[in-house]
Automatic annotation (TrEMBL), chains A, B:
One Gene Ontology MF term: 2-alkenal reductase [NAD(P)H] activity
Enzyme Commission designation: 1.3.1.74
A Pfam family per the record: ADH_N_2
Lineage: Bacteria, Pseudomonadati, Pseudomonadota, Alphaproteobacteria, Sphingomonadales
Domain Enoyl reductase (ER): 15-333
Protein name: 2-alkenal reductase
Taxonomy, superkingdom: Bacteria
Gene3D superfamilies: Medium-chain alcohol dehydrogenases, catalytic domain, NAD(P)-binding Rossmann-like Domain
Organism: Sphingobium chlorophenolicum L-1
Keywords: Oxidoreductase
Amino acid sequence: MVTSRRIVLAARPEGAVQLSNFRTEEVELPPVQDGQFLVGGNFLSLDPYMRGRMDDRKSYAAPVPVGGVMEGEIIGTVLESRHPGYSVGEKVAGRLGWQSHAITDGAGMVKLDDRFKPLSTAVGVLGMPGLTAYSGLLTLGKPKPGETVVVAAATGPVGSLVGQIAKIYGARAVGIAGGPEKCAYALEELGFDAMIDHRSPTFAQELAAACPNGIDVYFELVGGAILQAVLPLLNNFARVPVCGLIAQYDGAPSEGVDNLPAAMRIVLSRSVMMRGFIVGEYWDQRPKFLDEVSQWIAEGKVKFREDIVQGLDNAPEAFMGMLKGKNFGKMVVAID
Amino acid sequence: MVTSRRIVLAARPEGAVQLSNFRTEEVELPPVQDGQFLVGGNFLSLDPYMRGRMDDRKSYAAPVPVGGVMEGEIIGTVLESRHPGYSVGEKVAGRLGWQSHAITDGAGMVKLDDRFKPLSTAVGVLGMPGLTAYSGLLTLGKPKPGETVVVAAATGPVGSLVGQIAKIYGARAVGIAGGPEKCAYALEELGFDAMIDHRSPTFAQELAAACPNGIDVYFELVGGAILQAVLPLLNNFARVPVCGLIAQYDGAPSEGVDNLPAAMRIVLSRSVMMRGFIVGEYWDQRPKFLDEVSQWIAEGKVKFREDIVQGLDNAPEAFMGMLKGKNFGKMVVAID
């Protein structure tokens, strides 16, 4: 019998996520049936969208039930197979959840070929975050040469690729990140034209100064105070792909001024387009995305950085840190 | 010499528009030059967008300068012509401002043929408001059979056509208006499937009940409290063409809860598209729009209503009333 070590949602968070929202369990898996195969996990991807699944709120996806395995994508190895399409030893990826072993019939699984070097790129620059950046920026953002593209979380897996693709398309890339180390990395390694530290007390003024021609594309990952600073800088016909709101995920309703009327006035008076999206909508772009981005990596036009934590049991703490911006690069858990 | 009676912006409004923001002047016009013609105004169109021109705020259009003639579209008759393309007696329309007479070189003017019956339709159902409804709904809103389309100011020139075109396209049309008389008219004459009175204390609940399958298209004309009631009802992949925010035009910043974070969460989690637009962007659709809508009028599929006030001097008061929803149908001033 195979035992799967798994992390389940012990309780829904109230405000910030805490360790007590998670629980580790061990479960004996049933025998592999015809048409199924057993995957042993190598890497678990940690992504901001998972925070949304912990809440019970109307969304594009059902919430994780209390007591259910936390949702997430795994890179793994086929350990046993009674499925004609999968052989022992093959590398695969799919949404098998925060666990060490899982049995699947292959639905939603992809095979990983030699392009995924290292293998962890399959959940990073060549995985869901990469496709999110690529499809959202090119399909909704549509950057043109000479335009200004702004993205926060600029050293994360989505933001870093947004900035680098903006550069490839001839746009000016302005990034936002927390702290001098991340800002220096994005300027020097990723090739952003300007980086603003959102912790600076003069953040909004610095952002305005870094965007002398206004903002044509704002790739929204964070919301909150950064969105407030961006809105007045949007140009006529600006595009705002809305991909994430990490600064708001824990948020209680904010008291004070109602910023919605002013935001709507900007949308109206500048013919701004805002569009929420999830990567599943653009899944059909994956083959072209893999070809192009792996080529850009080979040519040195796209760089990426991973932040790998050892041990499945450390996933909750790594996840909580990521929501606070403590990671530096794509957050991945190496499953023991 | 010809004297033009005109209404100028005496002072920018602070909050609600007041009569003291306007001043009537009489000016002697210069002689008509080669390539020019003189227009005598028959009708002046009053439209909510004019409120925005009274403020000095970054927008798609420059503000009216203090002391300048109020911006607006006129329907008129060519009284004298030294322009090869225009003959005395022809009917024309264009943005000549709030005045009785004007000299123009024809830039931005259109000729009015027999389709414009009565002539005032050229600034209403067959004019800028009509094209706004037609292009914004069909290009951005894209209603599909069985979907739910919601629009406020539903007896106004834009809202009434949005609802009727939604019906022609097989969608369910839910309208919002102020008072039982307007609601009854929209239900009985315009063919809306449901009408909600925004003055009702249970407005939000009534709107939800009238949209049992949620909202697929919200054609935004008003903002404020109506937008707040609409947001929670938006479906996945809902489209929100943002055309006006009349409830907010006079508005000071609202204290209380910040509604922007929750609105962004809805945009994100339901893949909502919001897009500000102005009719000028879709000017190339005008020939098709005129053909289709005049055909729909002839077939009885589209009805319209005009609210005509006599006398240019009454334009400021009629405009102020329109901003408060006192008009019933397209607001037009018959110039004496």
